[in-house]
Amino acid sequence: MRTVLNILNFVLGGFATTLSWLLATLVSVVLVVTLPLTRSCWEIAKLSLVPYGNEAVHVDELHPGNRSALLNTGGTLLNIIWLVLFGWWLCLMHIFAGIAQCISIIGIPVGIANFKIAAIALWPVGRRVVSVEVARAAREANARARFN
């Protein structure tokens, strides 16, 4: 089922949104100051192309306890720069694509996926795209660690 939904996503606008993420990746490489944003662009471009079976999780969920306050502050600063330069227009692109996809009944699941990615587009630094199974295992491990 994931494959069918990913193909439907590609046909109904996923290709265009992925191209916009790749453009943001290219711009972030060219503007040397934004080079640290390149990884986030690349990660979310993968999610935009293949949203079903993958999930964007924060690195703190994958590796709890390994982040320092300095890294969190740097990530917040990068997210603010991201929001000003790239985040707002990528978010709008996903919202418009989601609305267009929701017009047809068959596109509603793909539109909902675009709305989820729109939220991620505003604040992507520190997120990694992993399979749904890896994300579920990380959440379970975090829950067990909290109760022990």
From TrEMBL:
The keyword Transmembrane helix applies. Coiled coil: none annotated. Keywords: Cell inner membrane, Cell membrane, Membrane, Transmembrane, Transmembrane helix. The keyword Transcription does not apply. It is a multi-pass membrane protein. It is found in: Cell inner membrane. It comes from the Bacteria. InterPro entries: Inner_membrane_protein, UCP028777, YccF. The chain crosses the membrane at residues 12-37, 77-97, 103-123. Residues 4-53, 77-127 form the Inner membrane component domain. Its main location: membrane. NCBIfam families: PRK11770.1-1. This is Inner membrane protein YccF. It comes from Pseudenterobacter timonensis.
